[in-house]
Amino acid sequence: MKTTEDRQIECTSLPILSSRDRGWENILVEQFQHPAGEGRTCYSDEHAICLSLAPRPVLLLQTQGDKTRTGLYAKGDFCITPAKMPFFARWESDDRFLQVRITSRFIESVAGEALEINPDRLELLPEFRVRDRQLEAIGMMLLAELQQENSGSRLYIESLANVLAVHLLRQYATAKPHLTVYAGGLPQRQLLQILDYIHEHLDRDIKLADLADLLGISQFHLSHLFKQSLGTSPYQYLLGQRIERAKQLLKQTDRSMMEMALMCGFSSHSRLSQHFRQLTGMTPRAYRAN
After folding, report:
1. Sign for the pseudo-dihedral over CA of 240, 243, 249, 251
2. N vs C: which end of the chain shows fewer Cβ within 10 Å?
């Protein structure tokens, strides 16, 4: 029989995966696996979203603020705990979950820039156990990126963080957002400005904030207008251009895979090979030999 002290010690184990050292801004993603136990948290400037990854339902007692509830958490169930709200949980069997912490500052920025919500009136609501397909999809994309051995594109992570922030504000905030819809995409001059910047910096870790700052608009609106213009997201366009540069290097030079990976903005030759195969159906070596 486990004592309360045993449970508290067990729940302080480190995450099995963490984005802490990967340079991801405004968002921390961690995967945990715990035996039966309990734990407390209270994040002063981060909102926490927990997605159950348990292969079988886990009986969970959970306290958020002054409300305590008990229920079975199945794979895909979420809880949301706003910043500054004390959280306590006790689980009766092995548990696996993904925790996503997103900064209050970033949520407030998105609220003001993209959704015209007064940050002073912003309040996220706690949720005990929710099913949300879009939230689950975002969580699984973050988990997939977390499971990669090498750091992924910051543009991709920032895009996911923006989508997550907008979704939280739309679905779980007290103030109802007003989302301005811009039709027609980016003006040609601005689109060319963005495309030129991407092409000139393919070897760098381009951030969504870099592209948005070029035009003086929010990251959310930049992504939305870019996709209207070209039918693809900034990240997918960037990835396609990197693969095109890799094709040129493979045919025109005898550089090593690692050299080409760095010249194309990939953190390793394995990342280059992975994306090259996904977009072309063959490995870089097979393409060079073809």
Report:
1. negative
2. N
Query: pLDDT tens digits, residue range 224-234?
Result: 899 888 888 99
pLDDT in tens, 194-231: 999 999 999 998 999 999 999 998 888 899 899 888 88
Are residues 129 and 216 both part of a single domain? no
Which tokens is 257 given?
């895979």
> Can you tell me whether residue 90 is helix, strand or coil?
strand
Q: Do 223 and 139 fall into the same domain?
A: no
For residues 241 and 234, what is the distance between their CA atoms, to the nearest angstrom? 11
- Widest Cα–Cα separation across the chain: 69
- The token duo for 200 is 């000139």
Supply φ then ψ for residue 27, to 5 degrees.
-145, 135
Same domain for 221 and 118?
Answer: no
Q: Are 38 and 17 in contact (CB under 8 A)?
A: no
Torsion angles phi and psi, residue 19, rounded to 5: -95, 10
| 180 is a domain residue | no
Q: What's the predicted TM-score (pTM) here?
A: 0.79
62-94 pLDDT, tens digit each: 999 999 999 999 999 999 999 999 999 999 899
> Are 79 and 148 members of one domain?
yes
CA atoms within 13 A on the CB side of 28: 15
CATH number, domain containing residue 250: 1.10.10.60
Angle, helix 234-252 to helix 269-280, in steps of 10 degrees = 100
Antiparallel, parallel or unpaired: β 127-130 and 78-81: antiparallel
